[in-house]
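User: Here's a chain of 282 residues. Predict its fold as C-alpha cells.
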Amino acid sequence: MQYSILPLTSADLPLAHAMTQALGWPHRQQDWQHILDLGDAIALKDDSKLIGTGAVLPQGDYASIGLVVIDQKYQQQGLGRTIVEQLINHSPLVDWYLTATLAGEPLYRKLGFRHYQRVHQYQAKVKPLTPVPENRPSQHTIDDYRPNDSASLQQLMQSATQMNRDKIVDWLCQTSQRIIVLKHLQQITGYACLREFGRGLCIGPVIAQTEDQACYLIRELLAGVSGQFVRIDIPSQYRMIAATLTTFGLMQVDDVSQMVKGATPTINPDCTQFALVTQAIG
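Assistant: Prediction complete.
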C-alpha cells in the first residue's frame, strides 16, 4: 500500500489532535501549533486522510524528534519507522535525541538510538501548603522575569544543554504564564517557566546551578497555583525534586527513556536543566 508524505500544516492540526486524543495523549491543538512554530513536521497520508505525524526541532548541532503518532487503525505496519527514517534521512544533522515510551523503545533501538537517561513525569492538582516550605539558598532571591532578561535566559539554556535553543527561549518568553528568575548578587543564575499545556499547566524548563536551587524555583511556582493541575517532567536522578513534588501532591505517572543517536548530550554540572521543556523538545 502506498502512502504519501507531505509537510504537516495548520490545516492538518484538527486531525492530528484527534489522533493524539484517541491515544490518550494530553496535547491540545494549541500544543500542536507550538511544535509547528518551533520546527518542522511531516504528515503521512492515505489518499487525503491523515494517518501519521512526526516532528523535528533543530537545536544547534542536535535535533529532537517528537509527536511520532500513527492512527490506531494503521498501527503495526511499520509506519512509525517510515516517519522517523524520513525525518532523519532528509536532514544534514547527525546528532538526534528523543523521549521514547516503553512501546516505542524497540523501534528506536532498531534505528540506532540508545538510552542515556530516564525521565519521570509527575502531575496532579497542586495541594495547598501553609506555610510553603522555603529553604531559600543563601544570598539568592527570586524575581519575576522582565523582557530585558531574555539574553540571560538564552545564555543559561545554552550553558545547561550545550545546544542552541534561542528560538525555544524566545517562544517561552512569549507564551509562558509566568517566568521566575533566580538571582545571586543581582546576577541571574537560574529560572523556571510555567505555561499552559495539555490538561492544565506545565513547569519547564527549570535551570539552576544546584538541585536545591531548582527546588526553590519549583516551590515558588507551585505555591502560586494551588488547586490547579500541573505537570512536570524531570530526569529520574533528581530525588530532592521528586520529594518536593510529592509534598505538593504531585504523583509520578510515567517513566520514559531519553534516547540518542549520535553524541550523547552533555550535562553541565555548573548549570543544569532539571526539568524538560516538554518531552518532544527535551
